[in-house]
TrEMBL record, chain B:
<dbReference type="GO" id="GO:0003677">
    <property type="term" value="F:DNA binding"/>
</dbReference>
<dbReference type="InterPro" id="IPR007492">
    <property type="entry name" value="LytTR_DNA-bd_dom"/>
</dbReference>
<feature type="domain" description="Response regulatory">
    <location>
        <begin position="2"/>
        <end position="115"/>
    </location>
</feature>
<protein>
    <submittedName>
        <fullName>LytTR family DNA-binding domain-containing protein</fullName>
    </submittedName>
</protein>
<feature type="modified residue" description="4-aspartylphosphate">
    <location>
        <position position="53"/>
    </location>
</feature>
<dbReference type="Pfam" id="PF00072">
    <property type="entry name" value="Response_reg"/>
</dbReference>
<dbReference type="Pfam" id="PF04397">
    <property type="entry name" value="LytTR"/>
</dbReference>
<keyword id="KW-0597">Phosphoprotein</keyword>
<dbReference type="InterPro" id="IPR011006">
    <property type="entry name" value="CheY-like_superfamily"/>
</dbReference>
<feature type="domain" description="HTH LytTR-type">
    <location>
        <begin position="135"/>
        <end position="239"/>
    </location>
</feature>
<keyword id="KW-0238">DNA-binding</keyword>
<keyword id="KW-0902">Two-component regulatory system</keyword>
<dbReference type="InterPro" id="IPR046947">
    <property type="entry name" value="LytR-like"/>
</dbReference>
<dbReference type="InterPro" id="IPR001789">
    <property type="entry name" value="Sig_transdc_resp-reg_receiver"/>
</dbReference>
Length: 359, 239
């Protein structure tokens, strides 16, 4: 699903509040009206008038809410205020007329007068104005929350895209050396070695491409991918590459960023062991220290040249991704020994991957 | 054994046929370039095993199996570049599936499975006598005796086999097959075409996303168990 489609799916174009929710938000006004009517309770018919006003208020609140909701953000604020004032005033007049008719029926008012109807604010106008104000506040709060959510979502998608881009930087690097080695094997007619290397390269590509939609994989999977890579390098370098890959208890199910160890191992070989005349050793140690996972990659290498070290794309990339995924809860240390050799230590939170169901 | 190879790419068919030609018991091989012609051939020609490409124009390898009446369905080995068909192959009761580019070792494994299904007894030496106690490895000009009891795991390495004893590796000029047969099957288990482990050294198993398994030994060494051996390993460990 594309980013825009994902946004659209979660935020339908009509992000406004439903009418029933607005009416519900305005319902405490009925209570206010009841309390304001308390002093008049001595009057015989006061209760009846208050009930009439409460019922008419509730009846009016629905069309008023619909009108305001319809005009919301479509007309300027002053126009909305004017329209709503006029509309509520009209409702209030209708109420007053109803009340006066009722009053005449009970004989409390001798005859019908427009003046009282037009000036009387007590009927319902103030209540409806308050209702419109509450509507505006609730709608505004709702908009703010929706906007915040969208921003959060956009940030998530951006982070996703960045992580993906960072991971894709890794892909082409490990292809060329093996391809060159295979071509050499074919030239030498070492067919079995060539086909074995091709199928290992196929497995490696599958493993890296398949984790393409995942930022994190299990450590076992990451180590398996790293081992495929090392199998290829082993054919290329032969006895020049000595390997020592070890894992402590209860770490294989840890969740780690995909292609975390492989680029470090690639660096260790490219900048270290491949530049040595004599055989060199490459070590990968993974251990767990309570809630922390420690990954140490060590390698022999030629005496260090001051420039270019640590600038390798692999290490910078790993640093970047770790900090994006785990913030301050991780660190990457690089130690270069003067006489050659290098040690990279990663400490990051231990999080268990979801157990895989066995087929 | 009568074999049919179905794949829309000629070179890919050629690769399978050349590998089949190394086996004396395979005398009859036919090729088809698409599912339709394979279907026509299979309807009136009995075939023991079919190597089927999954993705072909028209009928896919799986469709081909579906369209055949169960009685005339050959044993199937699926060929695919995509790992996600593994489960499907499992459901279609395929004997095995091979990922492209094809690995020779895996190809041999698949053929061994086919032979087993066809009822040919697994090629086990009748001389399955007492397992050996020692191997002799050559270091420079002298021979070193390696006690089997000390060997923790064994790994194929070119024309040699590496016996891992602690931090040392002794090279013995034998094939994995020979070594496997010389060992006590109750103590040593093959977990990969190039790996044998001693059962009491296994500390942890962790399933991988492609149905293989990562095995951690007590000293922290990591070895890989391929899916065709995982069940055997679990059974041997009593899991």
């Amino acid at each position: 699903m594309t980013a825009t489609a994902a946004l659209a799916a979660r935020h339908p174009p009509d992000a406004r509040l439903p009418v029933w929710m607005i009416v519900l938000a305005g319902s405490p006004i009925v209570l206010c009206m009841a309390i304001m009517g308390l002093p008049e309770l001595a009057d015989d018919h006061a209760a009846a008038f208050r009930v009439l006003f409460a019922l008419t208020y509730l009846a009016w609140s629905v069309p008023i809410a619909i009108v305001q909701r319809h005009l919301w953000r479509k007309v300027p604020a002053w126009a909305l205020v004017a329209v709503m004032l006029a509309a509520t005033y009209a409702c209030s007049i209708v109420n007053n007329v109803l009340a006066q008719v009722l009053s005449m029926h009970w004989g409390r008012t001798p005859n019908f007068t427009w003046a009282r109807n037009l000036s009387g604010l007590d009927g319902c106008w103030l209540a409806l104005i308050a209702f419109c104000a509450i509507h505006a506040m609730v709608a505004h709060a709702h908009e703010l929350r929706a906007a915040r959510e969208r921003v959060r979502e956009a940030e998530g998608l951006a982070r996703d895209a960045e992580l993906r881009a960072l991971r894709y930087q890794m892909h082409p690097h490990f292809l060329f050396n093996p391809l060159n080695a295979i071509s050499a094997l074919v030239t030498e007619r070492r067919n079995d070695d060539a086909t074995r290397m091709l199928s290992t390269l196929g497995d490696l590509l599958r493993a890296t491409l398949e984790s393409g939609h995942l930022h994190e994989v299990s450590l076992a999977d990451e180590l398996a991918t790293t081992q495929l890579y090392l199998d290829i390098e082993k054919v290329r370098l032969g006895d020049r590459l000595g390997l020592d890959v070890k894992a402590g208890p209860d770490v294989l199910r840890a969740r780690v960023p995909s292609l975390l160890i492989q680029p470090l191992v690639e660096n260790a070989i490219r900048h270290g062991i491949a530049r040595l005349r004599e055989p060199g050793r490459l070590g990968v140690q993974v251990s767990r220290d309570g809630e922390r996972l420690r990954i140490v990659v060590t390698n022999d290498g030629p005496p260090t040249e001051p420039r270019g070290v640590g600038q390798a794309i692999g290490l910078a990339n790993v640093r970047e991704r770790l900090s994006r995924l785990y913030g301050d809860r991780q660190h990457v240390d690089l130690d270069l020994a003067a006489q050659g050799g290098c040690r990279v230590e990663i400490v990051m939170p231990f999080q268990a991957a979801a157990p895989r169901e066995t087929v | 054994m009568r074999v049919l190879v179905v794949d829309d790419e000629p070179l890919s068919r050629r690769g399978v046929c050349l590998r089949l030609a190394r086996h004396a018991d395979i005398a009859w091989v036919r090729e088809c370039g698409d599912g339709e012609s394979a279907l026509a051939l299979l309807r009136d020609t009995p075939v023991d095993v079919a190597f089927l490409d999954v993705r072909m124009p028209g009928i896919s390898g799986f469709d081909l199996l579906d369209r055949l009446p169960p009685a005339s369905r050959p044993l199937a080995v699926m060929l695919t570049a995509y790992d996600q068909y593994a489960l499907r192959a499992f459901e279609a009761a395929a004997v095995d599936y091979l990922l492209k580019p094809i690995d020779d070792g895996r190809f041999e494994e698949a053929l061994a499975r086919v032979r087993m299904r066809l009822g040919g007894a697994p090629v086990v030496d009748a001389a399955q006598a007492a397992p050996v106690r020692c191997f002799t490895a050559r270091i420079g000009h002298r021979d070193v005796v390696v006690r089997v009891d000390d060997v923790e795991w064994i790994e194929a390495s070119g024309d040699y086999v590496g016996l891992h004893v602690g931090a040392k590796t002794h090279l013995v000029r034998q094939t994995m097959q020979q070594i496997e047969q010389a060992l006590d099957g109750r103590r040593f288990v093959r977990i990969h075409r190039s790996t044998i482990v001693r059962l009491d050294r296994v500390a942890e198993l962790e399933a991988l996303s492609n149905r293989d398994c990562m095995v951690r030994l007590h000293d922290g060494t990591l070895v890989r168990a391929s899916r065709s051996y995982v069940d055997g390993l679990r059974a041997a460990l009593g899991l």
